[in-house]
């Protein structure tokens, strides 16, 4: 008899509750990862993200071999096939129990309920643990009403209070498991290498990722609050792909942060506290995903915004996607996204605000395009960020607060270095002209003039939101 660890969003050996639990059974351990290409396509996962997963699986297989744990990578194509593929694997390996980390989207929860049911029919025990977030979704609720928090600040306060009571206690690497022969099932190393082929600037070895995390916390996080909004500075962690796939855990990050900056990490006005706040935003959005199905279904979180009539302007969408809007900071961000599958967070907000508020296009179009490009795409965080920008989400930016991309650019890329890097046509422009080139410069340099007027489009967005709010209030 043996134990199977089914890996999804916890591709690590350190601080992995699944392996910690499995070791307790004192039996040989297998790990498995199910690749679901059709499902990934249906959920708009980017090719870069899939490649990153394959590259991580190659590294993880070697890391687990050293712990006597074979990693089986097997194709289930989509969620409909998952339960039968997993059951067959369990029967072929004489599995007695399966240990799994919870996932929170509607489709994932439906798949897991079916898996649990089918395993039970084969007398295979399953355990479902919290691995993606620090605290289990549903465990942080308002004291007065025992309801999920829909506003970030009280959630963050409750989250911090609980952290201060309970602390962060990541476990070490899993102990050596009972030796077991490697098995000839699923994808072999050569097949995985073929899927993972291609360049990557993102580290996938656990040791490298943890060293990067340690370096960021020791050397960069102290100035994070002052510098994080400047896209040309190396001031952010760039750890989001590793965190999205669980190469390190939130507990590992928080534990290092507390050890290094015990007196600062609860104050969001400090660098360490500001970075902790970003981790809490991630937790907040995952908690919401687990508790509100509307997020999985792509429905606006705020009921008052569900009837908004967005424009259907395909040319605008294409210009935005290609980074050819005539707004340099927006175009720089979109070109960075298209080139490397990642975009600086401040610029993500600028690009999202521009799509929804200036182009008056449905936020779901932007959400989908980001998922199709991002290496760190995650439904909860991506949806949360987009609905925040569109003023349709929980605790979203008020509808009358519309980013002016030119003033954002002047403030956070004052020398224009970020724009020059990604919008090569404008590289020769000196001084402030880089933020808002003249029509003459645009023609001369082969750069598009702005596809919308920022002032009038902003005014229109505010009027549309105000009218929708009045109408909804009147109806109720």
TrEMBL record:
Source organism superkingdom: Bacteria
PROSITE patterns the record matches: DNA_PHOTOLYASES_1_1, DNA_PHOTOLYASES_1_2, PHR_CRY_ALPHA_BETA
Keyword list, A-Z: Chromophore, FAD, Flavoprotein
Cofactor(s) required, per the database record: (6R)-5,10-methylene-5,6,7,8-tetrahydrofolate; FAD
Keyword Flavoprotein found: yes
Domain (Photolyase/cryptochrome alpha/beta) ranges: 1-134
Protein family: Belongs to the DNA photolyase class-1 family. Belongs to the DNA photolyase family.
Protein known as: FAD-binding domain-containing protein
Organism this protein belongs to: Celerinatantimonas yamalensis
């Amino acid at each position: 008899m043996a134990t199977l660890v089914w890996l999804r969003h916890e591709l690590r050996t350190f601080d992995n509750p699944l392996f910690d639990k499995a070791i307790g059974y004192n039996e040989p351990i297998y790990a498995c990862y199910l690749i679901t290409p059709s499902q990934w396509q249906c959920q708009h996962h980017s090719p870069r993200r899939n490649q990153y997963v394959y590259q991580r699986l190659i590294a993880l297989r070697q890391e687990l071999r050293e712990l006597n744990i074979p990693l089986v990578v097997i194709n289930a194509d989509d969620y409909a096939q998952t339960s039968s593929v997993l059951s067959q694997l369990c029967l072929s390996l004489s599995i007695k129990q399966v240990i799994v980390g919870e996932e929170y989207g509607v489709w994932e929860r439906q798949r897991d309920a079916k898996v649990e049911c089918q395993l039970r029919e084969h007398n295979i025990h399953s355990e479902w643990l919290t691995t993606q977030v620090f605290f289990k979704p549903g465990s942080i609720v308002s004291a007065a009403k025992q309801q999920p928090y829909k506003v970030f600040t009280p959630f963050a306060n409750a989250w911090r209070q609980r952290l201060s009571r309970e602390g962060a206690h990541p476990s070490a690497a899993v102990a050596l498991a009972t030796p077991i022969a490697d098995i000839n099932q699923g994808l072999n190393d050569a097949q995985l290498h073929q899927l993972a082929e291609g360049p990557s600037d993102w580290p996938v070895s656990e040791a490298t990722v943890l060293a990067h995390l340690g370096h960021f916390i020791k050397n960069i996080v102290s100035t994070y609050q002052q510098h994080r909004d400047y896209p040309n500075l190396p001031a952010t962690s760039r750890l989001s792909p590793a965190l999205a796939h669980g190469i390190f855990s939130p507990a590992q990050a928080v534990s290092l942060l507390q050890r290094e900056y015990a007196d600062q990490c609860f104050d969001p006005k400090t660098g360490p506290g500001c970075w902790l706040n970003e981790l809490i935003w991630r937790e907040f959005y995952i908690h919401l995903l687990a508790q509100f199905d509307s997020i999985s279904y792509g429905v606006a979180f705020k009921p008052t915004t569900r009837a908004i009539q967005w424009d259907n302007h395909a040319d605008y969408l294409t210009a935005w996607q290609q980074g050819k809007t005539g707004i340099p900071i927006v175009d720089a961000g979109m070109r960075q996204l298209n080139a490397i599958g990642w975009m600086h967070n401040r610029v993500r907000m600028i690009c999202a605000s521009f799509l929804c508020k200036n182009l008056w296009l449905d936020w779901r179009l932007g959400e989908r395009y980001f998922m199709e490009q991002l290496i760190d795409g995650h439904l909860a965080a991506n949806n949360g960020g987009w609905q925040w920008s569109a003023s349709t989400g929980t605790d979203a930016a008020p509808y009358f607060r519309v980013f002016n991309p030119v003033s954002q650019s002047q403030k956070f890329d004052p020398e224009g270095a970020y724009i020059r890097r990604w919008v090569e046509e404008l590289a020769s422009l000196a001084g402030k002209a880089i933020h808002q080139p003249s029509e003459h410069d645009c023609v001369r340099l082969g750069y598009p003039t702005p596809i919308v007027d920022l002032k009038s489009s902003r005014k229109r967005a505010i009027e549309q939101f105000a009218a929708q709010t009045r109408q909804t209030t009147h109806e109720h």
